[in-house]
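Give me the fold.
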Amino acid sequence: MTDFWSAPATINWCEDDYAVTGNIAEFWNSLSSLAFCLFGALGLIQTAKHGGEKRFVFQFLGVILIGIGSTAFHATLLLYAQQADETPMVWSILTWTLLLFGDDVSRWSPALGNAFPFVLCLYGAAFSVFHWFVPTTTFFQVHFTFFVALNIVRLTAHYRACHDARARRIVHLYIGSVLVGAAFWMVDFHFCATIRQWVFNPQGHAIWHLILGGSTYFGPLFMLHVRAAELGLDPTVHTWMGIPYLSLRRKRS
């Protein structure tokens, strides 16, 4: 048990360890991880306005857990904290899959629609147990990237069916943030040796946290808009300091 709690993480990043303070391994990566908590809380507020459907609540709670786990991971660079970061990522991406595919599966087959959440839960549990005992970083990254790509493909269908220009811009923000954030992640990880020779480290992984944190809000927010429109709540998109949010009202019959 002592070995478990002291085992090092299977991956490290380009921020210099313990450079800012001796108590936190990666200060900027830890601090930027809190963006997930902020955007998850914003999502919960929007969900409460929407009526609190459980799947959206679970989605944004998962985002908050990612923020907490990511903060612990980058603060300690220990294996158990890495698992506390990556395991919520698995459950969050599966919940995002439910948001995007769940209604379609139910329309195709009500029985499969009822079973779909349980199938995803079983898959998430099996993957979590496997990943806990066999912490393979590459396998996790490929698995996560596959689901991100799959869900973007499905999101484009919802996008084409939406005729609200302001709502469609939320999808632009989502896909743009995923792509730009991924670019920062790739550069920080694969070109770290070069970056360490620069006078200033731009902290690409911390920037990835900030940008991807936004994506975890933008995508589900668009699906909240889709769901609200289905329920006749006449969703309207507003922005505050560039961050979109919804106001809802029931259409008059």
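The beta strands are 236-240, 243-247.
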